[in-house]
Amino acid sequence: MKIDIIKIGNSQGIRIPKTIMEQCGFTDSIEMEIKDGSLVLSPHKVREGWLESFQEMAANGDDKLLIDDVIPTEYDQEWEW
């Protein structure tokens, strides 16, 4: 299938037909990579097992911040912002 490249602001893009989106399992975001000079698009997949791990961390209270990211501390003096 031939698809024209279109101008989108300062970039260029393509329009992917809805049927192709559905067949490929594309939703709000996709993975894009270059393999052997070709552009390869694939469905974005949440890293396997991460959701369950995060839920287990939350249940165990292991998801607390180690250093408060809102209130400055003495450690902030060491950082170069």
What does the model show?
- The model has no long low-confidence stretch (mean pLDDT 85).
- This protein has helices spanning 18-24, 50-60, and strands spanning 6-8, 11-13, 30-35, 38-43.
- The chain is of the alpha+beta class.
- The strands form 2 sheets. It has a two-stranded antiparallel ribbon with strand order 1-2. Strands 3-4 form a two-stranded antiparallel sheet.
- It is built from 2 helices and 4 strands; from the N terminus they run ββαββα.
- Strand 1 (6-8) and strand 2 (11-13) form a beta hairpin.
Describe the SSE topology.
Elements: E1 6-8, E2 11-13, H1 18-24, E3 30-35, E4 38-43, H2 50-60
Antiparallel strand pairs: 1-2, 3-4
Assign the CATH topology.
Answer: Pemi-like Protein 1, Chain: D
CATH class categorisation: Mainly Beta
Could you spell the SSE succession in H and E letters? Answer: EEHEEH
Coarse morphology? elongated
What characterizes the major β-sheet?
2 strands, antiparallel
Helix content class: 10-25%
Count helical runs: 2
**Got a strand count?**
4
Enumerate the spans where pLDDT stays under 50 for 5 or more consecutive residues.
none
Strand order of the largest sheet: 1-2
Give the total of domains.
Answer: 1
* Average pLDDT score: 85
Based on the coordinates given, report the CATH architecture: Ribbon
Gap between N and C termini = 49 Å
Q: State which percent range the strand residues make up.
A: 15-25%
Radius of gyration: 21 Å
Secondary-structure-derived class: alpha+beta
